[in-house]
Specification:
By secondary structure, this protein is of the alpha/beta class. It contains 10 helices and 10 strands. The protein has an 8-stranded parallel β-barrel. A two-stranded antiparallel sheet has the order 6-7. The protein has a single domain, classed as Alpha-Beta Barrel (TIM Barrel), CATH 3.20.20. Helix 6 crosses helix 7.
C-alpha cells in the first residue's frame, strides 16, 4: 500500500468470507491466528473481529478468539458487533498492553444503538459512528444524501460531547458507508464521496477520522478490465483518490492490496467520475465500459 497516512483495518476475520466462516465453524483457533498474522504482515494496523452468529450463543469461543488473536499480533482489535452484550465480552477480555497500548474499536454505534456508548465505561476505546442511518422518531431511516450523512455525523458528535465532554475527536471514526459501484443506480457512491468532503471541510470536526468498507465498492465486478488490468484495486484506488485528500484516512479492507492515488487522466478514475455524475442506470453502463467491449 503506497498511500501515506491511510490506515487499513484488516477485514478477513469475518464470516462473509467462506474460508473464514469455515475456521469459525471448525473452532480452528490456529487458523484464525494465522489469518491475523497474515493480515498484519501485509500492513494491517488493526484487525476487524466478527465471528458471526456464533458470538451470540458461544461466549466462551468469542473470548477464546480475542485472546488467541492477541497472543500472536500486537495491533488493536475492532469488535464488529451491533450487540452491546457481545461488545462487553470482547472489551472485558481485551488486553491493551498486548496491543502496544492501542485502544480497541467499538464498531459501530449509530443513533439507533446509542446505548452502546455506555461501553466506554468498561475500558478506554475508540468508536466507529455509523453515519449512513439516522433516528427519526425512534425509527431507523437510511440517509440518502451527503447532507443527511453530514448532519447525522454532526449531531452524533455533539451528543457524544454532551455526555463525555473530554472525549477526543481523534478517538472517533465516522463510517460513511459505500456500496457496490457496479450496481449503484441511486448515487450512493457520489453520496459517500460528497459526505466525506463535507465532513472533512468542517473546522469543528477537525481531527475526526473517516472510514469505509472499501472492498464493498468493487464486489460484483470482474477481476480484470478489458485490457487485462486488475479492475478491483483500480476501482478502489479511484475512490481513494477522490476521498483521501478530503479526510478519509481509515479503510476496512484487504491488507496487501496495491492501493495508489491515480493520476487525473487515468481511465478508471475518469470513468468512475463520469458514472457518479450521470447516475441512474446509465451509471452502470458507464462502469461496464471498463470491462465490456462496445457492441
Amino acid at each position: 500500500m503506497t498511500i501515506q497516512n491511510l490506515r487499513i483495518i484488516g477485514e478477513r476475520i469475518n464470516p462473509g468470507f467462506k474460508s473464514s466462516l469455515a475456521l469459525f465453524e471448525n473452532s480452528d483457533i490456529k487458523g484464525i491466528q494465522s489469518l491475523a498474522i497474515n493480515q498484519v504482515s501485509k500492513g494491517a494496523c488493526a484487525l476487524n473481529i466478527n465471528i458471526g452468529e456464533r458470538a451470540l450463543n458461544d461466549s466462551q469461543f468469542m473470548v477464546e478468539v480475542v485472546k488467541a488473536v492477541q497472543e500472536v499480533v500486537s495491533v488493536p482489535l475492532s469488535f464488529d458487533f451491533p450487540h452491546s452484550s457481545i461488545q462487553e465480552i470482547c472489551l472485558k477480555n481485551y488486553d491493551q498492553k498486548k496491543a502496544n497500548g492501542g485502544k480497541p474499536y467499538i464498531n459501530s454505534i449509530s443513533e439507533l444503538r446509542w446505548e452502546m456508548l455506555d461501553l466506554l465505561a468498561i475500558c478506554p476505546s475508540k468508536i466507529f459512528l455509523m453515519a449512513s442511518e439516522r433516528n427519526e422518531n425512534g425509527q431507523q431511516v437510511a440517509n440518502k444524501t451527503a447532507e443527511e450523512v453530514y448532519v447525522t455525523t454532526k449531531r452524533m458528535v455533539e451528543n457524544i460531547k454532551k455526555k463525555y465532554s473530554n472525549f477526543l475527536l481523534d478517538d472517533i471514526v465516522v463510517d460513511v458507508s459505500v456500496g457496490p459501484v457496479g450496481t449503484d443506480t441511486e448515487g450512493l457512491t457520489k453520496m459517500a464521496v460528497d459526505s466525506i468532503r463535507m465532513i472533512g471541510g468542517d473546522p469543528s470536526l477537525n481531527g475526526i477520522h473517516m472510514s469505509v468498507g472499501l472492498s464493498n465498492i468493487s464486489i460484483m465486478l470482474p477481476n480484470k478490465t478489458k485490457e487485462g488490468l486488475p479492475l478491483k484495486p483500480l476501482i478502489e484506488s479511484a475512490f481513494l483518490t477522490l476521498t483521501v485528500p478530503y479526510g478519509l484516512d481509515h479503510i476496512i479492507g484487504t491488507a496487501g492490496r496495491e492501493y495508489s492515488m491515480l493520476p487525473k487522466e487515468h481511465s478508471v478514475l475518469r470513468i468512475m467520475k463520469e458514472a457518479m455524475e450521470i447516475g441512474g442506470f446509465d451509471a452502470l453502463m458507464k462502469i461496464q465500459e471498463l470491462y465490456m467491449d462496445a457492441d
